[in-house]
Amino acid sequence: MPRIAPHARAVPASGIRRVLELAWTRPDAVVLCVGEPDLPTAPHVLAAARDALDRDDTRYTPNGGIAPLRDALAARLDPEHAPAVRRDNVWVTAGGAQALHLALSLTVGAGDGVLLPDPGYPPFTMATRLLQAEPQPYALRPEDGFLPDPAAVEAAITDRTRVLLLNSPSNPLGTVLPADLVAELVDVARRHDLWVLSDEAYAAFTYDAPHVPAARFDTDGRVLTLHTFSKTHAMTGFRVGVLVVPDAMAPLMPRLQESVISCVNTPAQYAALAALTGPQDAVDHARATYRAHRDLATGLLDAAGIPWLPAAGGIYLWADVSHATDGDVAAWAEDLVRTAGVAVAPGSAFGPRGEGWARISLTATADDLRTGLSRLPGRAL
Ligand SMILES: Cc1ncc(COP(=O)(O)O)c(C=O)c1O
Question: How far is the CA of 103 from the centre of ligand 1 (A)?
Fold first, then answer.
């Protein structure tokens, strides 16, 4: 038999999936391990997709997406980014996942290095490996409030490094990078001539701190920005994301997009257009709900004596469960499903720095949070 490409085998398996699959074997399990909004997609968004189907608007679109969607995105993002954002800078992708893959395809080749947050969203590592590039983790440490230390990021740079990946608000941490830190990190990238890939998938959900786009500090066209409709508009299954690219990349984009997806599903693009330009009450409601869930969850953890990291944004809470895990949070999380019927994401699924921590999803219902968190082993106060 011919061999399967080694870089395909080098893509690591998801440590969250194992816990989720175990939870599916127990009908009474409370699932707090996935970031799936438990809120409905807004009716005007569903209607826009239905209308596209009813008028048989089901053919290919331009590679970058339908013009009104790209223009609406450019109009939304232009005031927040330093370089002008025009239609040609905005690429509609098959979810944030494909925006990530596209961004890395544009910036790294075999053996190149990508600076990734540890703990960080697992597909950062997976996509890097699939492109035969090398993950170069930069540590996010509890003593720094899990914020990146620019000096440590700089120390991790080698002559192979091409990309600095930032993620704010963070999955899994819920941290939001303050403006001065974002500016400093973009400056590190500028000094070492790196691309910056800024994953802003959760930009719509900040609570105690404003979202700061990295492109605000882009003086020379080195920042690529990822957005997605998935979480903001409860549209995970529509698969619509966005990659904003610097001018220099725009001419290459049609070929890259053509080689992978040609374009995004047409009715889904009309749904995204309605989501962006229509009423925003569903987004406001989602933000208020996740904030209330965060406050509920932190209260419950406090009562159990379990420490947590303040979440200024995002849809997750990062909890210190090291008192119960005996140095192996992955095994503990699997055991917790079997013995207590609650599934949380083990911190080690997000990188070695996540050992001893667990990610709790705030998109679960309040009832599920109450039941699930009451099943966590408390720590003596
Ligand atoms: C940080 C981050 N980036 C990107 C994505 C990908 O989003 P999508 O579901 O639109 O592919 C996610 C999804 O969970 C995410 O958490």
Answer: 14
Whether 176 lines ligand 1, by a CB cut-off of 6 Å, is: no
Structural domain containing residue 317: 6-41+281-374
Distance (angstroms) between ligand 1 centre and the Cα of 52 equals: 25
pTM recorded for the entire structure: 0.97
Q: Does residue 206 have its Cβ closer than 6 Å to ligand 1?
A: no
Q: Do residue 298 and residue 213 come from a single domain?
A: no
d(CA 221, CA 211): 20
295 plus 193 within the same structural domain: no
Ligand 1 binding pocket includes 201 (Cβ within 6 Å): yes
Say if residue 182 is in the same domain as residue 151: yes
Contact (CB, 8 A) for 95 and 230:
yes
Along the 381 residues of the chain, how does pLDDT read in single tens digits? 999 999 999 998 888 999 999 999 998 999 999 988 889 999 999 999 999 999 999 999 999 999 999 999 999 999 999 999 999 999 999 999 999 999 999 999 999 999 999 999 999 999 999 999 999 999 999 999 999 999 999 999 999 999 999 999 999 999 999 999 999 999 999 999 999 999 999 999 999 899 999 999 999 999 999 999 999 999 999 999 999 999 999 999 999 999 999 999 999 999 999 999 999 999 999 999 999 999 999 999 999 999 999 999 999 999 999 999 999 999 999 999 999 999 999 999 999 999 999 999 999 999 999 999 999 999 876
The alpha carbon of 126 is separated from its chain's Cα centroid by a whole number of angstroms, namely 13
Burial class for 143, CB neighbours closer than 10 Å (0-12, 13-18, 19+): exposed
Cα 83 to middle of ligand 1, angstroms = 24
- 135 CB-near residues (< 8 Å, 6+ apart): 113, 114, 116, 124, 125, 128, 129
Residue 381 forms part of a structural domain = no
In a domain, 250, yes or no: yes
Residue 49 lies in a domain: no
8 Å CB contact between 29 and 341? yes
